[in-house]
Amino acid sequence: MEDFRTDRTRYPTRSAYVKPARDRVQRVAREWGLTEALVSDLTLLASELVTNAITHGRVQGREIGVTLTQTPDRVRIEVRDAGDGLPKEQNPTAEDLNGRGLILVGILADEWGVITQVVGKTVFAEIYLKQETPVGCNGVSHA
Question: How distant, in Å, are the alpha carbons of 3, 35, 68, 141 from that of 127?
Fold first, then answer.
């Protein structure tokens, strides 16, 4: 069985919850002993994925779920929403204020994608770990 760590939290689908979600990912990643560079990348990924879920996947009365998982070889962030639309990369102009979120996700993540469900979808991003990154514990924490 692989060593892993998981942190799961739910948030209302309101923009005021982007910061608490981002802050939690940052805090948990630091508690797990990940490098500051990795913490920074995970924090930005959380911000972009949660913002997209709240902006495009909002369903009245439903929450979004944020899951951070570390295995020996990668860290994965997942954001689940109840919306039925699928994310698509934009081609923003220099003047556009929006449309860069998935571009950033593609730059920061080694792998990312979408898993569709009966209700909603999960968008995930993974970063592969280098050997010098501390890994390994058995446990699950829930908010």
Answer: 17, 12, 11, 21
